[in-house]
Amino acid sequence: MMDQGTLVPERALLDLTLTSAERDELGQVAALLADAGRRLIDDREWLTQARELSCRLPLRLREAVRRFRHDPGDDGVMALRNLPVGDPGLPATPTVTESVERTVTVPAAVAVLISLYLGEVVAFRDEKSGALVQNVVPVPGREGSQSNAGSIPLELHVENAFHAHRPDFVGLLCLRNDHSGTAGTLVSSVRRAVRLLPQDVRDVLFQPRFATEPPPSFRAASSLHGRGTVPANESHAVLGGLPDDPNVRVDFHATCALDDTAKAALELLRNAFLEVAASLVLQPGEMAFLDNRIAIHGRTAFTPRYDGRDRWLHRTFVHLDNRRGLAQRVGGGPVIS
Ligand SMILES: O=C(O)CCC(=O)C(=O)O
Ligand SMILES: [Fe+2]
Q1: C-beta atoms surrounding 337 within 10 Å
Q2: Which of 47, 76, 222, 284 is deepest in the core (most CB within 10 A)?
Q3: What's the count of helices (H) and strands (E) in the chain, helices before strands?
């Protein structure tokens, strides 16, 4: 596995550390939005205002986002640093399951503003109650879960790989890291991994010889509501598009191969991803965007203390196309059913 140092030189173009003047500029726009009439984040009028205000982000930030949207680089990751987020002033890290951020805060406004400059924020009705800003926090009793509530290593996955309208990008904004400051989002990219695979293995991965289950969060939600909301588990290919620069659709916890040859190919793909993976250790005030078509992600293990100061990320999902999956959007809005 590469260490973080290996990642740095090649990443220079896609990463941005705000100057203190830019941090203040962004803080002012976020504060304006956080004060906007005490609305809820999921309120359509608030989102409209957030979309307008996203055009007032610092110029270099807009340039970085535009560059990343055009070409997410070999890693499919953009890291933004020195955002106006972090202690002092944060409440205790939430500890409840399905935690989301409904009321407008400066960190939530920062996450939404940047996400809305990248594209359209979306969420899934059956995951974390369809909230547009979700909390990634360790939950007591869920340590061993293969979800973002856990604290054991989380398997590499494309976000919501089972879903036809899975996000194009995932945003992760760090409010607090774990106590040791070492918990990392493991990131890897198909652009790097595919180069390690022989042609016959790639050929198998390009064929519909795989199926992917919904994650535990979706399953819980659908049984809760007694709805058949989860799309049929159709067989699909793991790689798609251009042979030498494919998109990827896999979750190494939830995707299974439908025959032995496919199983062997999937294992080789996992090994290739692990070989080129890097741990992106987000510290408070840092936000990563992952291109969910190219990059896959997981998380290293950490030890939660449940003392109000545990690791806390805000998560957003972004689509590039506001008409994608429109027929499945609740009231034509950002929540996908
Ligand atoms: O905790 C992390 O760094 C990532 C967790 C994750 O996969 C997610 O929230 O989608
Ligand atoms: Fe994830």
Answers
A1: 14
A2: 76
A3: 9, 16
Contacts of 267 (CB under 8 A, 6+ apart): none
CA-nearest of 110, 112, 118 to 169 is 118
Confidence of residue 87 (pLDDT cuts 50, 70, 90): confident
Closest CA to 333 of 322, 318, 321, 317: 322
- What topology is assigned to 14-321 in CATH? Double-stranded beta-helix (3.60.130)
Lining residues, ligand 1, CB within 6 Å: 136, 148, 154, 159, 172, 185, 297, 299, 313, 315
Which residue in 100, 182, 89 sits closest to 139, CA to CA?
A: 100
- Ligand 1 centroid–CA 256 distance in Å is 21
326: CB partners within 8 A, 6+ apart: 332
pLDDT of 332 over the 60 cut: yes
Domain boundary assignment for the chain:
14-321
102 or 290: whose pLDDT is higher?
A: 290
**Ligand 2 centre from 154 Cα, in Å?**
9
Residue 178 · residue 307 · CB < 8 Å:
no
Residue 100's DSSP bridge partners are 134
**Residue 38: what pLDDT?**
64
Residue 288 CA neighbour count, 13 Å, CB half = 21
Nearest CA to ligand 1 atom 5: 148
Q: Output the CA 222–ligand 2 centroid distance in Å.
A: 19
* Mean pLDDT along residues 8-13: 51
pTM of this prediction?
A: 0.92
The C-alpha atoms of residue 1 and residue 162 are separated, in whole angstroms, by 27
Give, using CA atoms, the residue closest to atom 8 of ligand 1: 148
The residue-averaged pLDDT of 32-58 equals 87
42-54 tens-digit pLDDT = 788 889 999 999 9
Interval 171-181: pLDDT, tens: 999 999 999 99
